From TrEMBL:
<protein>
    <recommendedName>
        <fullName>Tail fiber protein</fullName>
    </recommendedName>
</protein>
<feature type="region of interest" description="Disordered">
    <location>
        <begin position="1"/>
        <end position="20"/>
    </location>
</feature>
<feature type="compositionally biased region" description="Basic and acidic residues">
    <location>
        <begin position="1"/>
        <end position="11"/>
    </location>
</feature>
Length: 225
């Protein structure tokens, strides 16, 4: 005869809290117990009745010794009360089972900083698949985004700069891949090379070796069992 699971496994009083595996096992034992109680095998039903403290043999002896309608009525009422209480307990457990959320295998869960892991919330077995997307940002499909499932490399729009100067003697402009010299060649005078870093105008430049916006690190989980 299958034993009833411990009450604390089902009513939420167990410490530490009941795991998903323990709950499923308890529900399986409860189902088997009810099958034994109401099943087709008479020996199982008798064992179940004795587990509930119902001794039909003793009752029959009492009834045969005391053919008392009042005694019979009291026994029947007590049995009905026990059956109603058991039915209410089963209905309550059924409602609790229906309210349990179990994530199906393959579910993807994004965990933000300070939030619970999916295993704490839903139970089951989860794999941290963040390394598959290490360091990537995500954008919605459409617009300038790549096709769904594809990745884009870093990029910035091109920009240009102009320099305008005047002088009475020889002067030369220097720029990346470009040199322009005036027509005059006499009275050459050495000058100074001046440069300015972008960081002097905006502190965002030079603060990183990559192009990135403000961001916060997350974890990506996948339910595997």
């Amino acid at each position: 005869m299958t034993k009833l699971p411990a009450k604390e496994l089902l009513d939420g009083t167990k410490n530490p809290e009941t795991t998903t595996g323990e709950f499923r096992l308890a529900m399986g034992n409860l189902r088997q117990f009810l099958f034994d109680l109401f099943g087709d095998e008479s020996t199982d039903k008798e064992t179940a009745r004795q587990t509930l403290g119902i001794d039909l043999t003793q009752l029959n002896e009492d009834i045969s010794k005391k053919a008392d309608a009042e005694l019979v009525e009291g026994v029947v009422k007590e049995l009905v009360s026990d059956v109603v209480e058991l039915a209410n307990d089963v209905a309550k457990l059924a409602g609790e089972v229906a309210s349990i959320v179990v994530a199906p295998v393959g579910t993807i869960y994004v965990q933000f900083a300070g939030q619970s892991t999916p295993e704490d919330l839903y139970g089951g077995t989860w794999e941290n698949i963040s390394p598959q997307y290490a360091g990537q940002f995500f954008r919605a499909e459409g617009g300038n985004a790549a096709a769904f499932g594809e990745s884009q490399s870093q990029g910035l729009p091109n920009h240009t700069h102009q320099l305008k100067a005047t002088g009475s003697d020889l002067y030369t402009y220097y720029g990346a891949n470009y040199i322009y010299t005036t027509a005059r060649v006499q009275n050459s005078v050495n000058g100074m090379i001046n440069s300015i870093a972008a960081v002097s105008d905006n502190k965002i430049y030079g603060s990183s070796t990559e192009v990135r916006p403000d961001n916060s690190t997350i974890r990506i989980w996948k339910c595997i069992a």
